[in-house]
Amino acid sequence: MAVAPAFDDQQPVPNHVAIIMDGNGRWARARGLPRIAGHKQGAEAVRSTVRSCKDIGISYLTIYAFSSENWKRPASEVDDLMGLLRLYIRREIASLGREGVRIRFIGNRSRLDSDINRLIVEAEENTKDNTGLNFTVAINYGGRQEILDAVRAFADDVRAGSHAPEDISEPLLESYLQSQELPDPDLIIRTSGEQRISNFLLWQSAYTEFVFTSILWPDFKHEHLEQAVQEYQRRERRYGGSGD
Ligand code: IPE
Ligand code: IPE
Ligand code: MG
Question: Quick check: CB of 181 below 6 Å from ligand 2?
């Protein structure tokens, strides 16, 4: 018999959920394991979360896999993380593609190894006609950098004569963001007990609901996603209005 979900299935679920997957290092440390063991287990949590989103009826899932500030970590950990990303994309492309998932990547690609860039392009290309879950992975992503890049691209277009400076507007700036094809996130979840945004989706999260959980990312399961959706359903989104 199917177990009733924790959330209210008569109420809308968030259309776009974004996740700051944090706590891999602490998960490993608690077990006396190297940090990479936490990252590996974290990759498993990503796989199951993709499936959970499909079950729950969430249309967009965006995950923060590597921030533009994560290069500050020891070279050995950066190498491990890049190795894991390479493995993950290679292994998942085919199965996600078969399941109808459309994969996109956001973040600055210029500092990524060329083989990772090739995998990214291949994954996007292979899944571009899929109409199931929209799954976006943020790699070497920083919200401030994304906005700066958009402003630079707009300035170039002004210089080239295709825009006038006074054309700038919210929709026009959004059209220069890497997230241009994604709706703003309705819900951002951060695991591991930290309560900050760490340069994730700064522009896009102007009216996003936040749910913080103390669960470490490698332990994140379907039930935790359902609980976050339930918490989201209890919120009243006002967008600056009076709520009447
Ligand atoms: C999140 O886990 C994964 C990345 C940021 C790549 P952390 O590696 O930040 O884990 P903690 O915060 O040290 O526990
Ligand atoms: C945020 O986690 C980045 C990712 C989850 C990829 P961090 O662990 O890097 O964030 P801070 O340094 O604690 O803010
Ligand atoms: Mg962390």
Answer: no
CATH topology for the 16-141+183-233 domain: Undecaprenyl pyrophosphate synthetase (3.40.1180)
- For ligand 1, whether the C-beta of 70 sits within 6 Å is yes
- Asked if 36 and 73 touch (Cβ cutoff 8 Å), the reply is no
Q: What is the pLDDT of residues 47-102, one digit of tens each?
A: 999 999 999 999 999 999 999 999 999 999 999 999 999 999 999 888 999 999 99
The answer to whether residue 70 is catalytic is: yes
* 1: three-class secondary structure by DSSP: coil
- Is the pTM of the predicted complex or chain greater than 0.85? yes
Give the residue from 199, 64, 85 showing the smallest Cα distance to 138.
64
Residue of 242, 144, 230 lying closest to 187 (CA atoms): 230
Compute φ and ψ for 128, nearest 5 degrees.
-65, -20
Question: Residue ranges per domain, the chain?
Answer: 16-141+183-233
The tokens 């796989």 sit on which residue? 47
Condensed to tens digits (0 to 9), the pLDDT of residues 99-132 reads: 999 999 999 999 999 999 999 999 999 999 999 9
Q: Which residues contact 130 (CB under 8 A, 6 or more apart)?
A: 97, 100, 101, 102
